[in-house]
Amino acid sequence: MESLPWVQSLVAESPVISPSLLACDFGQLQQEVSRVEAAGAKVLHVDVMDGHFVPNISIGVPVVQALRKATDLPLDVHLMIEEPGRYIKAFRDAGADSLLVHIEVVPDPRQILQEIRDLGAAPGLVINPDTEVEAILPYVDLADIVLVMSVQPGFGGQAFRPEVLDKVRAIRKRMRPDAILSMDGGIGPGTISQGAAAGANYFVAGTAVFHAPDYTQRMAELRAEACSATDT
Ligand code: DX5
Ligand code: ZN
After folding, report:
1. pTM (2 d.p.)
2. pLDDT under 70: residue ranges of the chain
């Protein structure tokens, strides 16, 4: 099994910084997308929340459609929803390039990962900070993207939880080398290096990018910090 070509391209360019639009100014969605694109983003992270799996509601299918018109960058779609199987086709039709489902709601994800692959999107698995790594290990080689949450999902701006780094190390050993190992939550200067040293090659960053005065400078700073942690 091989990752989709766009996933392989990102892995080749890793470490990757993926701006999380949850922290952007939604009143200027098109401009915010253009700004992070100009700042060097090669992919965008899109957080979908249903108010059930997480206590918050965020982006839905129409916003993914609008994003698809606003950019050619791959849209990495993180489904924090209870019944992801009901919605994968709608999000794929809207323009999602990846569809990430939580192991907590799909304990045996083999079928849904295949369905996502059959739809032409990159299949991804996500694990929460409080879920044991053993829940996900048997399936990580079926995913093009594995995302380790470094905060409890639902809100941006939370503090990074370093105890999840053991999970990153354990998952790295079992993953295909052409796949993405991502971290999401509290990623910024000072924490990205810890994730990179543990073996992650892709970093979702919301607050750290969109609340920075200069997106280009912040993206470069994050990438440099991740690079130097991987070199050592
Ligand atoms: C949290 C989301 C994240 C969020 C990260 O539930 O999955 O993608 O946007 O935000 P920061 O980078 O601010 O922790
Ligand atoms: Zn996310």
Report:
1. 0.98
2. 232
